Amino acid sequence: MASTIRWVVAALATAAATVAPAEKLEPMPPSRDAPVVIHDEGGVSILELIDPQVEGESAPDVAPAPVPATVTVFPVRSPRGAPGRLEPNPQQARLEGGPGRMIAVIGDDPASIAWLRARASELQAAGAGVLVAQVASQARFAALRALVEGLPIVPASADALLEQLGLSVWPLLISAEGEVSQ
Fold first, then answer.
1. How many Cα atoms are found within 13 Å in the side-chain-facing hemisphere of 121?
2. By the 8 A CB rule, do 47 and 129 touch?
3. Half-sphere exposure of 116 (CA within 13 A, CB side)
4. What SS3 state is found at 165?
5. What are the Cα distances from residue 115, in Å, to 17, 34, 36, 106, 170?
6. Domain parsing of the chain, residue ranges
7. Are 120 and 147 in contact (CB under 8 A)?
8. Is the sign of the CA dihedral 110, 153, 104, 66 positive or negative?
9. CA–CA distance from 81 to each of 86, 161, 171 (Å)?
10. Are strands 82-83 and 169-170 parallel, antiparallel or unpaired?
11. Pair 111, 136: CB distance under 8 Å
C-alpha cells in the first residue's frame, strides 16, 4: 500500500520535473542489489520522493521505472472510490507522515471538474500535485491537465491511497501535513 503511494508521489515528482514533450523511455533494468518491498505500512515522511533536493536531502536510491510513452494507461479506474461528499467524522482521515506536498485526488466527473476549477489557483499557489483517480480517455485527461496548467498531474488508481485513508470518495485535498478535506 505504501509502496503504491510512494510510486504515485514519485510519478507526481517526475511529472513536475518534466516540461518538455514526452519522449520514449526505456524501463529501468532490475537490480540484484535493490531490495524488494513485500509489505510496507510506512508512517515515514515521503518528502524525499516528492522533492529530493529539499533542504539538502539526497535523491532516493531507487526510482520507479519510467513508463514508456507507447504504453496505454487509459481508462484509469479506482474501484474503491467514486465521486461523492466527505461526510463529517470526529476522527478525521489523515495520511500519517504527510506527503510533504499538497495533493489533490480527482476524477473526470462533473463534481471533480467543478471542484478543480474552483480551487485551481489555490492548488497552483501551493504547487500541489494532482492524482487523477478515474479518467476515461487521454482526451479527458488532457482537458483536466489544461485546468491546472503547470502542475504535475498523474493518471493512476487511488485505491491504495483511499484504503489507507479509510475513504471512498473524491475530490479530496490532502495537505502537506496529511490532513484530508474536500
1. 1
2. no
3. 29
4. helix
5. 25, 40, 38, 9, 10
6. 2-181
7. yes
8. positive
9. 12, 10, 10
10. parallel
11. no
Q: Helices H, strands E: what count in the chain?
A: 5, 7
- C-alpha cell, 180: 484530508
Q: What is the number of alpha carbons within 13 Å of residue 162 lying toward its C-beta?
A: 25
Each residue's pLDDT tens digit in the chain (182 positions)? 555 566 666 666 666 554 444 445 455 565 566 555 555 555 544 444 444 444 444 545 555 555 455 456 899 999 999 999 998 876 778 888 888 899 999 999 999 999 999 999 999 999 999 999 999 999 999 999 999 999 999 999 999 999 999 999 999 999 999 999 99
Element (H, E) at 105: strand 103-107
Cell of 87: 461526510
pTM greater than 0.70 (yes/no): no
Long-range contacts of 53-60 (CB under 8 A, 24+ apart): 54/100, 60/10
Count Cβ atoms within 10 A of the Cβ of residue 154 and give its class: 0-12 exposed, 13-18 middle, 19 or more buried. buried
Identify residue 131 by its one-letter amino acid code.
Answer: L
Name the helix (H) or strand (E) containing 153. strand 153-155
CA distances from 51 to 12, 16, 87, 182 (A): 10, 9, 32, 25
